[in-house]
Amino acid sequence: MKPVFVAIAIAVLVSVVWRWPRLTKERRILALAIVGAAGVYGSGVVEIPDLKSTIEDVGRRLGQWTYLIVGLFAFLETGAFVGFIVPGETVILVGGVVAGQGEVSVVALIAIVWICAVVGDSFSFWLGRRLGRDFLIRHGPRFMISEARVEQVEQFFARHGGPTILIGRFIGLVRAIAPFVAGASGMRYRRFLPYDIIGAGLWGTAFVLLGYVFWASFDKVATYAGQGAFALGALIAFTVAVTVVYRHFKKPENRQAVSAWVGERGRVLRFAWARLTPGDLGLELTTLLAVMLVGGFVFAAMAALFGGDSLLGADRQSLNDADTLRSALGLDIAKLLSLVGSTPSILAVTVVALVFLWRRSRIAEAVAIASGTVLVYVAVAVAKAIAERPRPADPLTEALGSSFPSGHAAHSIVFVAIAVGVAHAFPRLVHRAAIVLAAIGLAAMIGLSRIYLRVHYLSDVVGGWALGAAAFAICAMVALVVMFMRQNEQSR
Fold it and tell me: pTM score, two decimals?
């Protein structure tokens, strides 16, 4: 018997009976629910289970299966419209809680959610491209997708355009079918993907970390929840808040004031967005932002998970594979590629590219490449000094300093940046694509050559590529914004 809760039940019941004629139907139901909950719990008939122990048991049972379950729901959220039935955030929150218990890695979980969400969105996009809007209207009711809901999402697209993919990721109604509608509407995939990468990354990271942080501070929450006061206090606070908000917005002048405030902020945001995203510049900025986010995350993940003396299973396997494939010719090729990725070679190629771009008045590209090259060198030096990771045993060529990250891999991204910069000189798309793909292949071979020569682990190389991509993306974004602002001033 818990006398406090019995007293609360009696007091609320007396108040309800006394004011019954003046209470609305909704308030009567809510008050009786409070009376019933407090009375049952106070009588001792029902005991609230130990919430912390229950969640800990769920975490132990899930274990490594968390990766598969959370990743699957992140994919199905949009890939099969499951988001209308089971919100993916709920499963991702649970995954974050399991990560907070130490059963799985929070970094790996974020990566899996991010990748699976993008894959699910892409699958839904291509379904929309192939099947079209009529298919969704005919079969949508099976997934709780009515024609009215489709029209709501289409109106959202009409108002916000491409950013709908990013913004809509945080709106349940839009998130579930936005990729399908984007594909059915004829949106180009190259425009869809950058927005989707950013939105999926922010969405997945936010909900994983929300569950992770919740568990980290769960001891305080569990103390109140175990006494029953937390749940009752939260219910009362929520009821009071809803009542106050309802009464406030019941007055027309208050609704008009909020509408005017939102409208003014909306005009400011639209003006700022228009200033920074004229024409195709918005897509370029979005693409570079997506590259920066993915590169920065991968680099941070490699540093957090596999820095110091710890090794990834693929680190050992890649070295073993290199030993198996090693030959005299392979060593010569690897040393040549390593020479191509060395500091003198990188600087020589960069100078030639800068002269070429400068003579063609491609100043923004030249500045981005020059500043990106400098930033990569500084970032690699700082990262190596912090990591101090030992290199693999028995290297086949001379190498100094920390193993993480691979300087050759990071610096090799300059070839990709140069290829993107000079591709504008070629009118045909096939030639541009060939140049960029060749540069990507060269950067890949330079990085892999360092594993072949046993001077880096795979995680060092991947971290180096990611660091280089993020650094060049940052410099390119700054160059684009500065170029646009100068052009805008000259046009006035």
Answer: 0.65
Report whether pLDDT(459) > 80: yes
**What CA–CA distance (Å, rounded) separates 435 from 430?**
9
Q: Angle between the 429-452 and 407-422 helix axes, to the nearest 10 degrees?
A: 170
- Dig out the tokens for 250 from the structure: 């019941």
Amino acid at 483: M
- Upstream peptide bond of 395 is cis (omega within 30 degrees of 0): no
Tokens read off for 295:
């590169």
Q: Which distant-in-sequence residues (6+ apart) come within 8 Å of 69 by Cβ?
A: 62, 91, 95
Angle (CA) 373-191-282 rounded to 5° is: 60
Neighbours of 243 (CB within 10 A): 12
* Fold observed for domain 281-491: Vanadium-containing Chloroperoxidase; domain 1 (1.20.144)
Q: 479, 308 in Cβ contact below 8 A?
A: no
Count of C-beta atoms within a 10 Å radius of residue 248: 11
**pLDDT tens-digit readout, 70-123:** 888 888 877 666 656 666 777 888 888 888 888 888 888 889 999 999 998 898
Burial readout 315-332 (b: 16 or more C-beta within 10 A, e: otherwise)? beebbeebeeeeeeeeee
- The Cα–Cα gap between 324 and 186 comes to 48
Distances (CA, A) of 211 to 47, 205, 298, 421: 26, 10, 21, 42
Report the alpha-carbon distance of residue 111 to residue 208 in Å, rounded.
Answer: 10
The larger pLDDT score, comparing residue 15 to residue 337, is at 337
421: nearest Cα among 382, 375, 363: 363
In angstroms, the CA 439 to CA 433 distance is: 10
Of 232, 448, 236, which Cα lies nearest the Cα of 337?
448
pLDDT digits (tens, 9 = 90+) for 151-195: 766 666 666 666 767 777 777 666 777 788 788 777 788 888 888
* Token couple for 386: 């912090």
The per-residue pLDDT for range 407-420, each reduced to its tens digit, is 999 999 999 999 98
Per-residue DSSP letter, 396: S
Pick from 298, 118, 310: nearest CA to 197: 118
Provide the mean pLDDT of the chain.
76
